[in-house]
Amino acid sequence: MTVTEQLQVVRGTDRRRWRNEWLDSRQSFPATGNFVLEDYAHGLLLVHNEDIVDPGEGFDTHQHRDTEILTWVLEGTVVHQDSTGNAGLIHPGLAQRMSAGTGILHSERNGAGYREKQRLHVVQMWIPPDITGLAPSYQELDIEGELARNTLVPVASGMPRHRGEAAIGIGNRDAAFHVARLDPGQAITVPDAPYGHVFLARGTVDYEGLGTLEQGDAVRLTATGGHRMIAVTAAELLIWEMTATARR
Questions:
Q1: Residue 230, domain member (yes or no)
Q2: Does 221 reside within a domain?
Q3: What are the C-alpha distances in Å from 135 to residues 22, 102, 104, 246?
Q4: Residue 203: other Cβ atoms inside 10 A
Q5: Residue 115 lies in domain
Q6: Does a structural domain hold residue 144?
Q7: Per-residue pLDDT of the chain (248 residues; tens, 9 = 90+)
Q8: Counted domains in the chain
Q9: 110 domain residue, yes or no
């Protein structure tokens, strides 16, 4: 099958929005409701939620199965606990991967108490694993220092070509997750891959051939890449590089 080259800009204001008393969730793909996630995926990316969680609040214990879950904190801290005994605080610069496997129970809450003012701003992303039915696993690593270099940092990957480069592994050989923090005037190049997803988590950038992207905007790439992005203001970019699709 021939994949046609395509660049699709998704403005932050065009994402689905789901809110309750303590959560404001911006969803790049339908994630709340009775959806088959694969039907709406781009490449392998099933879920890409940007959440604002009030102090003292969060997601009580719930279950996942056969899903690779990447959590990236932009502001505040996540208190994580799961049924395999992992517990701790996830903060900006700390990469976290949870492989649900045969089934895992976990909770995620804003580390700030009800009387504090610190909100939690977090992005959570899901992709399918290569192999289902494996034992659950967990990995985290602080890469704050690497993010100060104005380069694209391979944060999590299952791709053989990133072996030894990525901070943590994921159970899908066709996916890699990168992060770049850029000072104004600094630039990076988007990986050239069959499928890509660029998300501007903060700041403003100039995307080659597309123009200005603002915080919350995303670009979905198909059969293309190699474009330059230059930071207009201090920026943080979350980029997925993928060589397969989850669509049925």
A1: yes
A2: yes
A3: 33, 6, 9, 21
A4: 19
A5: 6-242
A6: yes
A7: 445 689 999 999 999 999 999 999 999 998 887 788 999 999 999 999 999 999 999 999 999 999 999 999 999 999 999 999 999 899 999 999 999 999 999 999 999 988 888 999 999 999 999 999 999 999 999 999 999 999 999 999 999 988 888 889 999 999 999 999 999 999 999 999 999 999 999 999 999 999 999 999 999 999 999 999 999 999 999 999 999 999 87
A8: 1
A9: yes
42: domain CATH number is: 2.60.120.10
Length of the chain: 248
Q: What is the 3-state secondary structure (H, E, C) of the chain?
A: CCCCCEEEEECHHHCEEEECCCEEEEECCCCCCCCCHHHHCECCECEEEEEEECCCCEEEEEEECCCEEEEEEEECCEEEEECCCCEEEECCCEEEEEECCCCEEEEEEECCCCCCCCCEEEEEEEECCCCCCCCCEEEEEECCCHHHHCCCEEEEECCHHHCCCCCEECCCCCEEEEEEEECCCCEEECCCEEEEEEEEEECEEEECCCEEEECCCEEEEEEECCCEEEECCCEEEEEEEECCCCCC
